[in-house]
Amino acid sequence: MDISPLNIEFSDLSDFISAHLGLRFPKERWRDLERGIGSAARELGFRDIGSCIGWLLSSPLTQRQIEILASHLTVGETYFFREKKSFAVLQESILPALIRTRHTAERSLRIWSAGCCTGEEPYSIAILLDELIPDLQNWNITILATDINPRFLQKASEGLYTEWSFRDCPSWIRNRYFERKKRDRFEILPEIKKRITFSYLNLTEDAYPSLTNNTNAMDIIFCRNVLMYFAPERAKKVVGRFYRSLIDGGWLIVSPSETSQALFAQYATVNLPDVIFYKKESDLLRTAPSAEAFSSLSVEAREVSFHPQAHFISEPAAERVFTQEMGAVLPLEDQKQATAESRPASYAEAAALYERGRSSEASEKIAVGLKDCPADAKAMALMARIYANQGNLAEALQWCQRAIVADKLSAESHYLLATVLQEQGHIAEAVLSLKRALYLAPDFALAHFVLGNLTRQQGKLKTSEKHYANALSLLKERRPEEVLLASEGMTAGRLMEIIRSTMFKETVA
Questions:
Q1: Residue closest to 409 by CA, chosen among 318, 341, 487, 330
Q2: What are the beta bridge partners of residue 246?
Q3: Which terminus of the chain, N or C, has fewer Cβ atoms within 10 Å?
Q4: Which residue blocks in 188-332 are alpha helix, DSSP H?
Q5: Pairing mode of beta strands 108-114, 268-272
Q6: What is the DSSP letter of 368?
Q7: How far apart are CA 31 and CA 3, in angstroms?
């Protein structure tokens, strides 16, 4: 049955696609939309496009169904070192400056390829870093690659390409960094592949920046040939969230066809040779106190020594010590309630500012509040989150420690400490902090999920499966739209879909 755009509510359908996927299909692209939906209809189990559209507009969708739509409506057309001028500026100016700055300090770089398609862009970035940093093995490099199309991500994670992906690319790149396979296919070398983390992320619906999905404290964000498919209001929202995901002085790189003075108004426009990049101007925590400034918070703060190094003791011994500590502080519940009641209004104002991405103002409010209520653990935890989102992990770690000293019963603070330790590469210590969080809050679903991820990294697959199963069991008792504790906006339904997808991929593998 041939149904043309003239007798279908394509206007409603395009609004629906924009709301759920962020993709824009104006009237002149309705034929493309019709073809994509027609293809998706068969996979979704419909015999004709009309029935599929009627169902889409009247039924809530699962994450899996959204992913099927994305796989039929997004375009995968890219190649290695696409837009050479942008990569030339990156190679000759931006990356060398970052490398010089970091070489004598923490030796870390964080780069996000948002809308990574089939992987050519993040692999190009990894190759470039390999060329520029001789002692790369001594660096903590994060290259996050996300996309809404699961089939693109699958191909990207395989790292297999044809000659077409190397068009307009120097032959030495293919010869040095790829191994020829059967049927004239080329596979990226394992040491390059392992430097990329591929992950599903919906730029319209998912939460970012977030410690949970590693989208915080980015030095550089690539989002090329993606924003052009978004409705203007959606693009503006995404660009604003990228701004929050960047550290001060961080760079946003878009396609030359996507540059816009209005869309990127909050960024500094930097005109470089033949390209325009956008930079996050300094939003330093000018009045934010360091954790050291509160070294005399209380007698308890002076007497309790809480350092990540303490996590290196054996897990059973550490858990015994922690159990004893919890037993000793349980009577402090009344003190905890008193702190909540005396918390100044500045904390609520700070939290609201933080949610809107105004971290500098939020930190100022927290500083004021801590003068009136110096043992406010929630305020300290929020300060830790602000520093972590700016990439200042040392300061974030100290604020986590202060928050835990002030309130040992805060599962959220132990969870936050674990995310900071994880980002620093201290996996065993992060695992122990997550166990402490679960001791305090056994129904902490997000802690179970992250613990599942970390134990999987440690090769403890059965333990990982157990934590995933525990998380799923807890999430089934929540409303799908319920926002989870410490998730920065992630809902129970979304986390459930992520866990199921992760477990499915492991089963297939």
A1: 330
A2: 218
A3: C
A4: 190-193, 232-245, 299-303, 315-329
A5: unpaired
A6: H
A7: 11
Say if residues 246 and 280 touch (Cβ distance below 8 Å): yes
Burial letters for 282-292: b for 16+ Cβ neighbours within 10 Å, e otherwise? ebebeebbebe
Query: What backbone phi and psi angles, to 5 degrees, belong to 82?
Result: -65, 145
Taking a C-beta distance cutoff of 8 angstroms, is the pair 250, 280 a contact? yes
Considering only CA atoms, give the Rg of the chain: 24
In which order are the strands placed within the sheet that holds 185-188? 160-161, 185-188, 178-181
Nearest alpha carbon to residue 403 among 426, 387, 427: 387
- Taking each helix axis from N to C terminus, what angle separates 377-389 and 345-355, rounded to the nearest 10 degrees? 20
Under 8 Å between Cβ of 117 and 186: no
Amino acid at 387: Y
Please give the Cα distance from 225 to 213 (Å, whole number). 23
| Tokens of residue 286, six digits | 């000018």
The amino acid that residue 228 corresponds to is M
Q: Is there a contact between 396 and 418 (Cβ–Cβ < 8 Å)?
A: no
Whole-angstrom Cα distance, residue 361 to residue 373? 18
∠ Cα 437 441 446 (to 5°): 70
3-class DSSP assignment, residue 205: coil
Q: Identify the bridge partners of residue 187 per DSSP, sorted by sequence position.
A: 160, 179
Count of Cβ atoms closer than 10 Å to residue 257 Cβ: 11
User: Is-contact 488 207, C-beta < 8 A?
Assistant: yes
β-bridge pairing 185-188 and 160-161: antiparallel
What is the amino acid identity at position 438? L
User: What is the C-alpha to C-alpha distance for residues 7 and 34, in angstroms, rounded to an integer?
Assistant: 12
Residue range 462-486, pLDDT digits in tens = 999 999 999 999 999 999 889 888 8
Q: Which two tokens stand for residue 59?
A: 């039924």
* Residue 409 three-state SS: coil
Nearest to 448 by CA among 489, 395, 487, 488: 487
Asked if 195 and 126 count as a contact pair (C-beta separation under 8 A), the reply is yes
pLDDT tops 60 at residue 166: yes
Contact 484, 468 (CB under 8 A): no
Q: What is the pTM of this model?
A: 0.75
CA–CA separation, 267 vs 252, rounded Å?
9
pLDDT for 345: 75
Does residue 499 contact residue 472 with C-beta atoms inside 8 Å? yes
Give the bridge partners for 23, in sequence order.
230
Determine the Cα–Cα distance for residues 214 and 443; give it in Å rounded to an integer.
23
Reading the block at residue 100, the tokens are 């010089």
DSSP state for residue 58 in the 8-state scheme: T
pLDDT tens for 320-377 read 545 555 554 444 444 445 455 556 677 888 888 888 778 888 888 898 888 888 889 9
Write the CB contacts of 328 (distance below 8 Å, at least 6 apart in sequence): none
The answer to whether the CB of 349 falls within 8 A of the CB of 323 is: no
Encoding tokens for residue 274? Answer: 């033949």
